[in-house]
Amino acid sequence: MTFVDSLLGSGVFVMFLAVVVGMAFGRIDFGRGIKFGVAGPLFAGLVLGHFGFTVPSAYSGLTLALFVAAVGLIAAHEIEGTVKTYGLNFVAISVLMPTIAVILTYVWTVLVFPDASTGLIMGSFSGALTSSPGLGSAVEALPEAAAQQYQIGHSVGYVIGVLIIVMFQQLYPKLSGMDLDDEKRRFSEKVSDIAEEETDVETVAFSVLGFALVLAVGSVLGSVPIPLGPIGVITLGTTGGVLITALVLGYLGTVGPVTMRMETTILSEIRAFTLAMFLAVVGIDAGSGLVDTIAEYGVEIVVTAGVNSVAAIVVGLVVTRFVWEMDWIHAAGGITGGHTDTKGLAAAIDATGADEVAAGYGNTYPFALLAMVIYAKILVAVVPL
């Protein structure tokens, strides 16, 4: 094996190549201050993945866990104010957004594309809202042939859903002329009226023990099976387990002798670094075979997944911003949580410069995950195969 072959076969090199190229691309200004920002590594990864570059599958879970842990610890001090201010609103969003997507999917399969593969179109439901638990819920209830088609639809829809939510979070604040400083001020006013001062909790620069504790406990929590009777069993997964653990332990401040409050500046650097790695890995994984799959199975999946994702986002946007008049920090978190997409959370944090977006996401995500699992079962039951 030559030196070049060895280098190109190195997962570490390929991942950081996507990070370097993607971050450089993300800095390009396309006018009016519009930049791809942290989405750059995602697109660089898609290109590398398309041309056959790969990284070990374990990279995705590891980089995601590190990113989510940092985000949760930063946002922990705002979680009480967010829950008490908009807790029930986030629950409503977590049900409303998947409801729109599942209704549209039913329309696609029965009315718009009745001659297309039913399993393929159905897969765009869980794919568009990037819900792996939704995929698992549907697949276990389908015959083998239909389950395979569903998985293909989910895979293509997943990439489309990721791209849409990431670009929405990156571009919407700029295209709408949003004053992010004013949005952050509104957010602070909302939560500061409720959040209690906790000056007696020590803050350290960084605690390796505390950070590792979040990852360990979160991994366990994310793996705990949650029985739902006839619906089946779900888990919170890495995203839900680590994020909820980070929010709770960060809010408590200490666990025995271990200090969980760490300097935001250090956590933010960890968050930015691990975020770039995570999105690069997502892109590399998704880029493999994407073009060929779309060419083979047609544009129906792209259309259905794209419309499902956009419709859910638009409904979330209208309700949070124009009905409830939420500040954008809370609204962005709720929309990404309802979309069950960590990549969207990453993009929202990058675009707003506010890690507190994670507080709204953490409130919404678990309920949206549950809604996706239930709706996937219902969809399989009501759509004729």
Report what the structure shows.
- The structure is a single chain.
- This protein is an all-alpha fold.
- The chain has one domain (55-382).
- The protein has 17 helices and four strands.
- The strands form two sheets. It has a two-stranded antiparallel sheet with strand order 1-2. Strands 3-4 form a two-stranded antiparallel ribbon.
- α2 packs across α3 and α15 packs antiparallel against α16 (342-352).
- The mean pLDDT is 85.
Low-confidence stretches: none
Beta fraction of the residues? under 5%
Q: How is the main sheet built? A: 2 strands, antiparallel
Order of helical and strand elements = HHHHHHHHHHEEHEEHHHHHH
Q: Helical proportion?
A: over 70%
Q: What's the mean pLDDT score?
A: 85
Organism: Halorubrum trapanicum
Keywords: Cell membrane, Membrane, Transmembrane, Transmembrane helix, Transport
Protein name: Putative transport protein
Subcellular location: Cell membrane
Q: Could you name the key traits of this structure?
A:
single chain, 385 residues, mainly alpha, two-stranded antiparallel ribbon, two-stranded antiparallel sheet, 74% helix
Per-chain topology:
Layout (H helix, E strand, L loop, with lengths): L2 H6 L2 H16 L13 H11 L7 H18 L3 H34 L5 H11 L3 H8 L4 H32 L4 H13 L15 H16 L2 E2 L5 E2 L2 H16 L1 E2 L2 E2 L4 H24 L2 H8 L2 H24 L4 H11 L3 H11 L4 H26 L3
Antiparallel strand pairs: 1-2, 3-4
